[in-house]
């Protein structure tokens, strides 16, 4: 009988015999011109997790999502349908909905001049309509945003692109997810958060996309799944990382109590109690699948050296005392990991401006980092240049390189 592969063997089985172990050039982590290009080519043109349908459970309930200068509102209409719109009044561009979340009982009313919109986004009435030309309810309603609901999670895309649908990208993970009733899970109280980090957004991805550092940097995760962690690199828009929980009871308070509690939870099937796994969705989203719950997080740039990281948690039984304890303990482990990663992210990002910095050397255990870098280069060809283009030319050079690549591909 063939013995099962170890985690390290599974990791190495995905790595080519020969590959380029270098990373992105230093200038790509501090160029403001490049950051502007990335916002358009990567963030606005690719799917972003905005919320879950159960964040907007009733007609009139809404969530907002701001990213890279664009503003969205996700609204459930009177007909029960969830829709996404640009949170931008057609009159003067004000936010129509000012709060992060809430309920509009009948209409959305712009706080600037009082224009009103129906819950399906159509224009209901401008203020003092006789002072304006006749306006069409649909043409002058809120502009819709492309949206896809996958297992209850609401994905939006501010601009269309050739990125496949979420369902298509996630199809290869269906076997892992078939017993998780994610559509009916609900938000866990107090778990939605946003943090600002003084780093380039790619530095966050670089640390998050490899488990080589777990044994050294994350004692709680090492006790949780230790040598049972491996990554599968980016393919068709997603990557996946696995952490198989070991049988060690754990010395860390959070891990010890988490494992003890998890073993006694009847609501969670036994085959779901042994694995934490993480699905990365290009270019910046991650869904963490834990026993009985999920967490998603994403980072996006404010500027070349300022990044927002956003997250939320959902579970099947939020009122269960046992589930509340599991969420609390999982949160403690995640918070500790976040703090440890933040320090590593800051150090690796600041290194790119050092006079001694001459690039990186990736381990086979970090091949997933390279796979994501290749994904970034494919969408933003100027990332292939070792040196930054002349001032005020990054966008132009990137367009020229994109056009040359497209012609060569024909």
From TrEMBL:
Transmembrane segments: none annotated. Its cofactor is Fe cation. Keywords: 2Fe-2S, Dioxygenase, Iron, Iron-sulfur, Metal-binding, Oxidoreductase. The keyword RNA-binding does not apply. Residues 47-156 form the Rieske domain. Pfam families: Rieske, Ring_hydroxyl_A. One of its GO terms (molecular function) is 2 iron, 2 sulfur cluster binding. The keyword Iron applies. PROSITE patterns: RIESKE. PANTHER family: CHOLINE MONOOXYGENASE, CHLOROPLASTIC. This is Aromatic ring-hydroxylating dioxygenase subunit alpha.
